[in-house]
Amino acid sequence: MKFQSTGIKSTVIMLALSMALVGCTDKPAKDITNSVPTLATINSGHIANAAATPEVWLSYGGTYDEQRFSRLKQINQDNVKNLGVAWTYDLQTSRGVEATPIVLDGVMYVTGSWSIVYALDAKTGEELWVYNPEVSGEDAAKGCCDVINRGVAVHEGKVIVGVFDGRLEALDAKTGKVVWSTLTVDKSMPYTITGAPRVVKDKVLIGNGGAELGVRGYVSAYDVNTGALAWRFYTTPNPDKKPDGAASDDIFASAANATWGDSGKWTTEGGGGTVWDSIIYDTVNDSVIFGVGNASPWNADIRDPEGNGDNFFLSSIVAVDADTGTYKWHFQTTPRDQYDFTATQSLILADLPIGAEGQPRRVVMQAPKNGFYYVLDAATGEFISGKPYVDLMTWATGLDAKGRPIENPDARNWTKKGFVSIPGPMGAHNWHPMAYSPQTGLAYIPAQQVPQALVPNLDSNPSPQRWNIGGDLSAGVPPTYPKGTLDFIRKDFKGNLLAWDPVKQEARWSVEHSGPGNGGVLTTASNLVFQGTIDGELVAYNAENGDKLWGQQANSGVVAPPSTYSIDGEQYIAIATGWGGGWALNYGVGWPKAVVPDVGHVIVFKLGATGSVPDIPENAVVMSPKGNDFGNDDMKMLGLIKYAENCMVCHGPLVVSSGVIPDLRWSYQSADKESWNDIVIGGALTDNGMISFKEYLSADDAEAVRAYVMGQSWLAVNNGDAKEPSAE
Q1: Could you report the per-residue pLDDT of 106-132, keeping only the tens digit for each?
Q2: Has residue 656 been placed in a domain?
Q3: Which residues are catalytic?
Q4: DSSP string covering 407-464, please?
Q5: Which partner for 358 in 149, 353, 369, 678 could form a disulfide, CB atoms 3.0-4.6 Å apart?
């Protein structure tokens, strides 16, 4: 109780401070409003005070602080067991769904895969309109991690969406018709957009992805009414280190350029550093704070071979002026990143009792991929504290007094001799948003353990349609394996919901899941924590001790975070379901089920409702080879290498799919040379995102890949993981 009282006192003090700022500054706090917005009136002032209007969910993280904490408490620990399905809506997708539902004025705005936007009656689920931006299959092939989208922003009658192919579009909130559209990327480069836009004052902010394939990262601000570019901040240098005419020019000239050499693949592949997810707005300091992604390529020896510079601003948290984009401060979580340890994971602003005599201090917090939980001063970026939030870490032994990782020399040298990294590139925490409750003082993290063998590949030839990381993706993937191998591998893949005390930097409780990749988190004033799982269940936990209080099967893997809202005095919990994303595509071997139902829906719950979730569709795929094993060992080894370079990140190591993408081992097309070539070389399925690989694979290469695939299908039979064809 003492801790809770301190939190309440802190909140009161900070509110008083905010009001003082309103009276004596020209900052946007003066526009804060207590009114519940409508579609026509919603603006940044409403989002700045969104905590006071919990009946609506106005932005990606709920408020500008992005705590994903709601003051609604009609649904509580005593009655949560009475939650039932109020309504469902079929998103008609078999790909990943990662969006947070936005709700105001009785309307829910949510995105599915392929950047499709849906407007639904938030009380009944009735479809109001659907907007399909018609992303091409060629653009889909540029994505590392499925054709997903994390949601929309809303502002004064407009719904704003970042489209997978690089467009930023404003739609009429009532009709779904395009108000304005602007292209934010160079279409000749493998850029994508999967993140949700954020509206700050009169600007809308968006980043992009593509570092695995080879791009230069940046975040942009556009006029929210016209789509005109207002400012841009690059996160890696111009290849010739000259000015870009951008907001980032001064900081690169004065500091950041010097952390890069003058040669290496960063000069041709962009250097990476994409801002593909977390962007927040600090209303107190008038700062936009964003997380920066991994390097391009990962391998620092070929990316920047001249020295040991930290390579600003890879894997960093960066703060800029909201109006101009001018640099304020940065903190680099993984200097000279070469592990895919992005700092794009959810950023949260909070007032923690860590000042003198326990006084509140405004901080920004993050649990990035590298496994350390960071608490930084929000005004200056000063490192306050950091500790590992995972039990096992091989790449570093801790942090020094300034927050810099103390790296294992063997990990730093993976670019020469290889290393098994824990966490691996999937991270100890990936994009799935964590939440923070100012009542319990705890952060709730979708944590995980996914080891990865990092092995150099200095001879790889860059291609705009595949991962160009300077590493051997076939490393650790044997051409054959004994019975029980898949079960053995899965024992090292772990997932849990972790309650973390950011003041004491220690775990409070943890709930184990069946594997990694579980959904984002919502917490409420009734001390509930909601999270979906890869097993397809939405669960409510006691926020103080982790006890499970309620669960409901969604009949599809859940990776998106829930949101909550209230209409006519009734509180609702909303979740968008749909198995997919990077974990599902890349790590089928880590999924304990052979095939996962993959049907996207919006499912909304309320107390006393008696509806039902959609039935699981019957799986028509029979797990047995559809043709004969063929080819000698050399042919299959060539097939493995080409498969790893061109196919594995979508179809999975060992050709084991989690169900999002067809499992090639059981495909009739894999068994038929002509059908295989029509797809792999001829591009027959381009509209689905399976482009032609004729520029990257010869006819002999394609046939070698087919031999490897068919060999894996029969290996599964021999190991007892699949049926003989005669047993169909």
Answers
A1: 999 999 999 999 999 999 999 999 999
A2: yes
A3: 340
A4: E-HHHHTHHHH-EEESS-TT-SS-SSPPEEETTTTEEEEEEEE--EEE-B-TTPPP-T
A5: 353
